[in-house]
Amino acid sequence: MKTILLAGAALMAAPFAMAQSHNAHWEYEGDHGPDHWAQISHDYASCAGAEQSPIDLNGYAINAAINPPAIYWRNARVTDAQNNGHTFQVNLDNAGKIVVDGVDYNFLQFHFHSGSEHTLDGRRYPLEVHLVHASDDGRLAVIGIMFARGEHNPLLDDLINVIPGSVGHAQPTMSINLNDFLPDDWHSYRYEGSLTTPPCSEIVDWTVFETPITASADQFAVFETLFPHSYRPVQERGRRFVLRTN
Questions:
Q1: Is 220 among the domain residues?
Q2: Residue 170's pLDDT band (boundaries 50, 70, 90)?
Q3: Domain CATH for 213
Q4: How many domains does the chain have?
Q5: DSSP assignments along 68-85, one per residue
Q6: How buried is residue 213: exposed, middle or buried, by Cβ count under 10 Å (0-12/13-18/19+)?
Q7: CA distances from 46 to 35, 70, 154, 167, 234 (A)
Q8: 1 within some domain
């Protein structure tokens, strides 16, 4: 996948916070919704780009002789838990890294979308978590994992207990092991895309796992209540290659 450089990797520590730093107000519905993001502000012009995310992951993917990212996550302390009005975002202290095509990407933060932003053969899941990483030279790699209806998820319970009920921050005394997000089956899809919120910068090497993990209806209801329908509709794949890993 091509190398994409950023001016200042620190900006990527919180894509949603970066988007909110602009004066233009955006939402998931109505006159400030996804269909209008590119017109809201000049800063959001990339939202009309040709390599936007999310996309539907389907039979057009090419089965490729590549592996998913090598993952080196470890138990880490939560430094900030934020309700920013669009999502619940969690920052961790020194949680590890992933390696994609020989390049190290250090973990920055994870956040959720209710329902899933990516779809699989047209199916939207109730929830998706995005685990955001950046390399030393500012490239981004994000892992997306879906949640399907099923068994209760203990990690989600721990997180739900510390979500601020309104816009704001919390600094809970807790640790998280990101490996608890991983499904047993690591088959995944890789493609080049964008941030899924304004400014929609086309700077992301995406890996989306094919197999979801589970959570209960009560757990999904919490996210749907606090962040209803917080997903961008799927975008055109265009001429991009989507690769399915071994």
A1: yes
A2: very high
A3: 3.10.200.10
A4: 1
A5: PPEEEE-EEEEEEEEE-S
A6: buried
A7: 13, 30, 38, 27, 15
A8: no
